Amino acid sequence: MGNRDGKETRLASSKVMASHPDSHPDEVHANEIHSYKARSDKARSERSHPDGAGEKSPSAPLKARGKGDPAKLSTYIKSEKWLLVLITITGIVYNAGMTAGPWFEGQLAQYLADILQGLRLPVEMVQLAIAYVIVIAIVQGCRALKRLYVRYFANNINRSMKGNLYHALVHETPRQMRTQNSGELLTKAISDVDTCVEGIRKFTTEVFDTGVVMIAYSVMLLVYDWRLALISMVFPPISYVIAQKMRKRVAKASREAKESSGRLSSRTLDRAKNALAYRIYGEERTQEKAYESALDDYEHKNVRSGILEGSMEPLYRAVSMLSIFFILWLGGRNVLGIGWTAWDIAAFTAFLSCFIKLATKSSHAAKLFNSVQKAKVSWERIQPLMCEVPRESASIENASIENASIENAPCVLPETMQEPQGLRGSLDPQGSPGSQLLVADGASFAYPEGPVILRDVSFAIAPGQIMGVTGAVASGKTTLGKMLLCEYEYGGSITFGGCELSDLADFPDTYPVGYLGHSSELFSDTIENNVAMGLLPGASVGGGASASVEEPLQDVCFDKDFESMPLREQTQIGDSGIKLSGGQQKRVAIARTLYHYHPVMVLDDPFASVDKATEQQILDNLRSRYSDRAIILISHRLSCFPSLDSVLFIENGSTTLSTHDGLMESNGSYRKLYELQSRGGDLDEQ
Amino acid sequence: MSSSKENASSKQGRHAALTALARAAKQSKGVTALMIVAIVASVVVGLIPPLVLKQIVQTLVDGSLNIVAPAACYIGVLIASCLLASGQEALITMFGQKTMHALRSQMSSKLTRMESPYFSNTSAGEIASRIVNDVDAVEELLSSGVIGMLSDLISIVGILIIVFTMSKGLFVILLIALPLIFMFTRFCQKRMRKAQMQNREAIAMSSVILPETVDNIRSIRNNHGEEFMERRYGNSIERGFQAIKRNALFDSIYSPIVLTVSSGIIAIMMALCVQGAGWLTWFGMSVGTAVALISYVGQIFGPLQSLGMEIQNIQQAAASLQRIDEFMSLPERVVVEGPLGERNAHDAERDVSNVVQGSTAASAASGVCVSHIDFGYPDGPQIFHDFSLEVEPGEMVTIAGRTGSGKSTLFKLILGLYKPGSGSISVCGIDVDDIAENDRRGLITCVEQEFSMVPGTIRDQITLGNPQITEEDVRFSLECVGLWDVVCGMSRGVDTPCDQTLLSRGQFQLLSIARAVATNPKVILLDEITANLDSQTEKQVIEALKGASAGRTTISISHRLYENAGGRIVIIGE
Fold first, then answer.
1. Distance from C-alpha of B181 to C-alpha of B174, rounded to nearest angstrom
2. What integer pLDDT is reported at residue B545 of this predicted model?
């Protein structure tokens, strides 16, 4: 971590704040905020490696990034320069040595001719044969090493590119994900990395296996007979030109094939995902027909692209093979001594087999261009995404946190002394205004270029309090929760301990609001990892310390569920928690939100699939064990609302803050809503 | 009955991929025959050039320049071999694609016949991976595995025959060397296989992580899990690369060793043949022959090496093949086709009287009758014991009960997704198992708790691709739930592409109801639709539903609907 110094400063200053004698009520908040920062710093430095694998390899995964500009291809190649040097040496030895094969094989035939005519002794053949095997062994040895190094080279680049992209992905904000579709873009880019690196690998391989070897062969041909060499080298370039001409069509066909295959994949996924919906509606056959037409399209496009990619190459080769006629004819004249150069049989066969190898290679060259082209296209898609989160910015961001919060916060704090203006309704009876942690004052919200969804929202909540939020469907309950996450700009003022939330939002590491939305957002791992997300037990020492993930799990009544899970918190929960029931998923998500200390917690409909008894138990636990936090509970189910400290009722975009009793008295819509639900009596909704 | 069905389906599934191959071959006889001809011709023609070359060299050694004809012949054969190779490639591509198509079609219709619990127990990604990735692997197995192997075996045999006629000595050397080389090939491949499996697992792991990261980004950011996720992802990539590294070692040394051995064979042949007249005769050696034989030795290791690769491809695909076979042999349900529906061989086994009953009984009374059912999930407790429920046509019944009392299960049973252990369930007088696919939406639909969005437009959300649902039906259903004006306000009306941000959660629920009423079903099930609706919207929905169809039989699991619309309440699980 680059900001080690900064961290120490912060820890030090928070200590100073905390140890200040007879602290003023406002400073309590300052302390709260700063000690929260200290805690979260501590937490960050104590994040564990998942399943310890990170510690095993010294070059911990994804650590290769860091030096240089991640948006430049050269950065990745430069970081592997030693491998590149090894590849170059072995590549040149191997490819230059490739000419040894045809030369030796020609010599073997020549020696045979000489021995048959009595011009040489058999022992010379034996010596030649031994030399032949040794040279080939050395050349092939270099080839093996080169192949190995090229693969290491490609793997390393692949890993650091993916690492960089994934880094960008996890540092995207939910808003970017939605508005710029960046999640999908980055996911696609990560699959592009494979194509791109495959292109780089092929290029690195072919620079030697095609480039160097073609030069070596050409030199050999020129030495044997430069005039014949020039004549025979007319045809391979013609085949290049044809291949180049075809390239656009090949690329187009392959793009269409890819698109079709993408469509087929998403259709397949849809059929699997919505299988039961289609079944309930008896539309499976309709879907089957639609799927069949997707299959037709896929077959058609892929045959086209496959033929253009695969069966053109032998045709290019045929063109370049036309030279062979001249080699046989003019070379034959050379052997008989009536041509341009005097040849023996060795020269004749070596020249011929050398040329055939050259011609074969030249058709590979066309392939090389294709793969480089593909790599280029992939890289162009990847590159802009690499720029988005430059590596340095993270540490700059961290460094500026203390400037902003430590120095500015005290200046802001005195403002909280004043009673927030325009608070409607009576505030929660138990709390005095001074102890409010989160204060909204005339806040409003609209999506960019959208209508105003919430206006004049005012409330205040202190640690240990639970505020309920409810309202009609699409009334903006969820929007209110997200507003507190500052994913979008809001109007008016919402302050945490005197600091404006929108200012705090610039420093995601210390943002005070924890959030649980509709989706449980679980991932395929153990329950423990889902709750802890790498945060070591004890590191999240808030007021209600979580010594281990066991505690928050107990608080959400998971002990009973563990009875049927022999591995307890080590149980793997499957993709998106599929192996757990809906209620279990929700409760694991609540446990996660509890485990990660945030002074303010927003829980949006956390009890949707949880039965009422459990809901009550969890609420009791929240009250008794998380009194250091302010909890905002968004729900359409009002049964627990009478016991909450305050209730914010949203209606037609504006809000009314009171208590349950207050609203029952003064607000007709709320009363109706509540009575409608409570008349259901003991009937359980779920 | 069910056991005989399982046998039938598992027999069908055991060689699903091979059956599809056979079917594809049969469907496109022309392509298949041409492909085989092209493969054989291409291999045979490829063996000719060294023979011509031998002729040319020998002519030159004898001091004659009479080589124009052989040279023209040589070049002709080379070009012919290129053309054949090109045709072979094209035909193999076509064949491979046709096979994949056939296999995917079979899997697609298998999805329709699959028993419902399969979809609840298997993630969509896993199912899609069977149909997309595993079939791709099988195609690879065919075109780069089986077919390649065929052509390589023909080459090897062809070369051996030619070598045998030209040089007994080299033939003997090859007979000794080839099995050794082949054993070495297998050794390397076995070592590589394990590494590849590990790599595949790692790839699968990291491909799960990516969509998860996108879906869970809010939690990751909010709880500072960025670094943790990066490590998780890094580890999964690292695991893959460690496996690739082991793989790469064998991959890198294999071909160089084989080529070195091949030069060794040439060296031994050349060194031995000059050790006396007897040796020379045994090797059948002349200068021309030597050139041709060197060329053949070079050629025989190519196919041998590919043979190794092909075995590897086959091994890689073997797991996929097995997974496809498993998929195809999973237990099936009986799909009742309507009178207009296509019937396949599977359905022909069915009792014919059901069809008659299914198609004619649609006019019967529109009630629901559950009589004396027993049901429990496999490995779960008994949920229903001798449970009966009679819902009169047009009646509104609310089911109530504790969590786990089986309300949703009852719906699944009525919808025919699960079968009761005993007893029977009928809708509109038809046994639920006998409701024809084509009739289903007109008889009974269900509003699910969560809206299942399908790809496409707003219209597609309602029609689910059914072309028989008209423009008026779509409009009617949207008006019915009060969404028509909302949809009209969208840029392209009902043709607006649908995504998560288009409507609010409650509005999606309304859309879900529109989907259910579009076909004017006689019976409608409401699976706790109010879980995500506030009372106001719910009331709007109930009013709309009431207005839409007075005589509709409704079963609901929502007590709030009961509060609003009245009707009978049935408490289960007491």
1. 10
2. 62
pLDDT attached to residue A297: 94
Q: Is the pLDDT of residue A44 over 50?
A: no
Which residues in chain B have their CB less than 8 angstroms from residue A270's CB? Answer: 454-455
Which one is the CATH code of A415-512+598-678: 3.90.1570.10, 1.10.10.10, 3.40.50.300, 3.40.1190.20?
3.40.50.300
SS3 state at A234: coil
For residue B529, what pLDDT is reported? 62
- pLDDT score, position B541: 66
For the domain A524-596, what is the CATH code? 3.40.50.300
Quote the pLDDT of residue A184: 74
Q: Do residues A303 and B93 lie in contact, with contact meaning Cβ atoms separated by under 8 Å?
A: yes
Q: Which residues of B497-514 are buried (b: 16+ CB within 10 A; e: fewer)?
A: ebeeebbbbbbbbbbbbb
pTM beyond 0.90, yes or no: no
- Mean pLDDT value of segment A558-573: 83
Q: Which fold has domain A73-225+343-389?
A: ABC transporter transmembrane region fold (1.20.1560)
Range of B365's domain? 351-571
Q: Give yes or no: residues B155 and B303 share one domain.
A: yes
CB-based burial, A79-111: b 16+ in 10 Å, e otherwise? bbeebbebbbebbbbbbbbbbbbbbbbbbbbbb
pLDDT tens digit sequence for A1-41: 333 333 333 333 333 333 344 444 444 444 444 445 444 44
Residue of B nearest to A108 (CA): B270
Give the residue from B74, B224, B251, B398 with the most A CB atoms within 10 Å of its CB, the best one to mutate: B224
* CA distance to A40, A140, A542, A684, B306, per residue, from B255 (Å): 55, 8, 61, 70, 10
Residue type, A549: V
Residue B401 contacts residue B571 (beta carbons within 8 Å): yes
Distance, CA of A584 to CA of A530 (rounded, Å):
12
Q: Which of B88, B534, B559 sits opposite A685 (nearest CB)?
A: B559
Best B140, B192, B270 member to test A by mutation, with max A CBs in 10 Å, is: B270
Task: Nearest by CB to B465, from A264, A283, A312: name it.
Answer: A283
CB contact under 8 A, A109 and B53: no
The nearest CA of chain B is from the CA of A479 a distance in Å of 11
Residue ranges in chain B whose pLDDT is less than 50? 1-11, 340-364, 549
* Common-topology check for domains A415-512+598-678 and A524-596: yes
Read off the pLDDT of residues A352-381 as tens digits, 9 standing for 90 and up. 888 888 887 776 766 677 777 778 888 887
The answer, for A307 touching chain B at a CB cutoff of 8 Å, is yes
Taking the C-alpha atoms of residue A458 and residue A657, their distance in angstroms, rounded to an integer, is 7
B298/B360 same-domain check? no
Contact between B108 and A177 using a beta-carbon 8 Å cutoff? no
Question: Which of A189, A146, A206 minimizes the C-alpha distance to A367?
Answer: A206
Contact B534 A685 (CB under 8 A): no
Name the β-bridge partners of A650: A471, A655
Which of the 8 DSSP states describes residue B141? I
Select from A112, A269, A303 the Cβ nearest to the Cβ of B93.
Answer: A303
Closest-CA residue of B relative to A159 is B237
Give the pLDDT confidence score for residue A501 in this predicted structure.
85
